[in-house]
Design goal:
The protein has 195 residues and is mainly α. The protein has helices at residues 2-17, 20-36, 48-67, 73-85, 92-101, 105-129, 137-151, 163-168, 170-194. It is built from nine helices and no strands.
């Protein structure tokens, strides 16, 4: 009986840690606060060296403010490059360089910010799920059932998961939870703007 009570308390704690409000507080708000403190000197970059330098400066600023330690230039550029290269809608890295030359450097940095928040949400969710003993399929299944109930309206057509599937693959679960939390937060922001 004591084990059941302890397990229940642990599951409730995990559910609270995975609540969108908690994730907003522990992830989104710290990224946004750091972004607000960043001083972008110019909206338009005149050449590639200036663009590259601004990317490095921004990534290093974010990293130091969020994680509390330094990042070297090579790693900072790699992070920015990878994020922007994966932005296929924006034309990849080159398309974003052109955007910055057209006076939209803030838009480029906002894309990086959102990608970093996505990655951090996924890491946070995976870490929370990773607190459950990986061999405790019952605990994973109970959390997964709660997750499916909460987010089924946000799941895309044809995207169905059973609680058992998610319980067996908590890394997939962490990724999906981060995606659905972002969708939930986006919907909440739209609702608040409309009010």
């Amino acid at each position: 009986m004591a084990d059941d009570k302890k397990k229940k308390i642990d599951l409730e704690t995990l559910a609270q840690q995975l609540h969108p409000d908690t994730i907003i507080e522990k992830v989104d708000m710290i990224h946004d606060k750091s972004r607000e403190s960043y001083k972008l000197e110019k909206l338009r970059t005149t050449d590639y060296d200036e663009f590259r330098g601004e990317l490095i400066k921004f990534i290093k600023h974010q990293h130091k403010n969020i994680y509390g330690n330094e990042m070297d230039d090579a790693r900072a550029f790699h992070v920015a490059y990878k994020i922007l290269q994966d932005d296929h809608r924006g034309g990849g890295f080159v398309g974003n360089f052109k955007l910055a030359r057209d006076g939209k450097m803030r838009e480029v940095l906002d894309k990086i910010l959102e990608a970093q928040k996505d990655e951090h949400r996924e890491a946070y969710s995976t870490n929370v799920f990773g607190q459950i003993d990986p061999t405790d399929l019952d605990a994973h299944t109970k959390i997964a059932e709660n997750f499916i109930d909460k987010y089924k309206s946000l799941m895309g057509k044809g995207e169905t998961y059973t609680a058992q599937q998610l319980a067996k693959d908590w890394q997939l679960w962490g990724k999906k939870h981060a995606q659905y939390t972002k969708l939930f937060n986006d919907d909440l922001r739209k609702y608040k703007k409309a009010k």
